[in-house]
Design goal:
single chain, six-stranded parallel beta sheet, 12 strands, about 45% helix, elongated
Length: about 280
Amino acid sequence: MKLSQFYIDDIIKKAILEDINYIDAATDYLLDENAETSAYFVSKDQGVLCGIDIAMRVFQLLDDKIEFTLHKHDGDEVSKGDLIAEMRGNAAALLKGERTALNILQHLSGIATATNACVKLIEGTGASVAETRKTLPGLRALQKYAVTVGGGKNHRYNLSDAAMIKDNHIDACGGIKGAVSKFRSKAGHMLKVEVEVRNFDELYEALEAGADVIMLDNMNPEQMTEAVKVINGRAKTEASGNITLNNIAEVAKTGVDVISLGALTHSVKAFDISMKIK
């Protein structure tokens, strides 16, 4: 998965403008504008690295003469004390870009690390791990990229990608069958439909309506196991709701195809990385 450079640059520029505004009071008053120095990124935790090229791009947008050497790349497992990257160039640019670069790198590495922990717990089950649309405004593509780096797969990117008929849609349309039928009558042939079900009555209705994907919402492992048997390959199955590291392995063993976790993006812990001036 490769993100468009113009998209990345737009995010970085907005972040730099937010952080620097007019001047960097400390750096601009303390350092000679032509001073040069070397710096490096070092890991202070163990996990999966993600966003290092984006972090380096922060410095390049501030000064295109900055040079860097990468010792670790996206997807690499890093340990405490590992040297990640070295930078050389204008000291002011390195200091001005430090926080923006680290914010991106720490956040994306946190997502990749959390995703990888889930992926390892369900190895051999046939299930995949996915995020949801519970992402930070403006950062969705970056966050979804980090999920793939951690070994997960992406859910839909936005509301246009596919239709997910949830409880409020169902209630508004008077039932699953009516909602799916209305959708099919208007949507083009490329759009798939996923239906969220909360019980077995809704499950049977979703199957009868011809849903492409059925989300088993907040069901326990016993209910999921039975639901997978009932569906019997007639639709893809997705488990969602209250899934954690403590129960994800048990959920995967039920036979579901996808396990989605909003926590991968909406409340992930930042990965600890520091920048040091040599």
